[in-house]
Structures are given as C-alpha cells and as structure tokens.
Amino acid sequence: MGRAAASCLVGLSCFLQCAVATAIIVITALKLHKVSVGWNSNTYNADVSNVCLLGYTDQGGNLCYFAYIVSGISIIATGILSILQCCTCNLCGLGTVLDAIFAAAGTVLWAVAGVMFNWYEKLPSMAGVPREQWRHAIPILCFTACALFGVMCLAAIYSMLAACCCGGSKRGYKARGGNMV
Asked: Is 50 helix (H, G, I), strand (E, B) or coil?
C-alpha cells in the first residue's frame, strides 16, 4: 500500500465515520428520544416531557443528549480538520501527523461511548423498555465509528512511516540511484 492509498483510506474513513455519526443522530432523534411540550392552562406553564429510551446515567444524565454530543463533536471535528488541511495545503506536510492524533482521539472517544452505551443497555432497569433493536444498534454503530477511526489512525501512521523510511517521494528515490518503473 502506497502513501496515496493510505491517504485515500484516511479520506474514506473520514467520510464513513461522518455517515455513522449521522446515523446515530438520526436513530436517536427519530426512534429513541421524544420531547413533548404542552401548555398547562391552569398554571400558565409549559409542561415538558423528555423521554430517552437509551436510558439515564446514575446522576440523571440523559444518554440521548450524550449520543448527540459525541456524534456532533465527531462530525464537527472531522469537518474542521478537513477544511484546515485543505486551506493550508496539508498543513505544510504536517497533516498526516494531525490525522494520526485526531484519529487516535476519535478512536478513544468512540470506544468510551460504545462501552458506555453497551453497559447502560444491559442494566436490569432497561429490561422491557421498548425499541430494543434500536437501542442495540447504537453501541454497534459506536464501535463501527471506533474501528473507522482506528483504520484512519493506522493509515496515517503508515503514511508517516513511509515518508520517513522511504524518502517520501519518487524524486528522492531516483536521486539515490533507484530505477523508476
């Protein structure tokens, strides 16, 4: 695998992880989270009901909001990184290093999210909660995003090592007396 293939793999992984993060947002919003706002004419107050079928943390945190936040961070960070590298011409050659660091952080973020969603899904309090198949899809998608970031990290590391060990370009190879085929 050459550096061009590694760069292509990084780009494909970025695109696919954004698609997975979007799928998590859509599934959570359409199938697992319901916010209803009503009007109480007796007290002149709004009645808000917020039901999250993903569950709640021990401190009362809404896991649907956590799904939105993790997915949003992932999509926004990927977009910013892509625009930054495009506008600065690959950060003057340091884009691969930034890709590797970003991908490692994304791998950890999605692994933690996947473990957390999986753990809360298995709690006895979640027995009998409707839409089990949709709740089960969220940790699977989290681990899929984790794997995509892992592939992105490995491809970026490979690209960095290839640049260091192999001269980084065909011109450098030919200048050392190698034959180009």
From this structure: strand
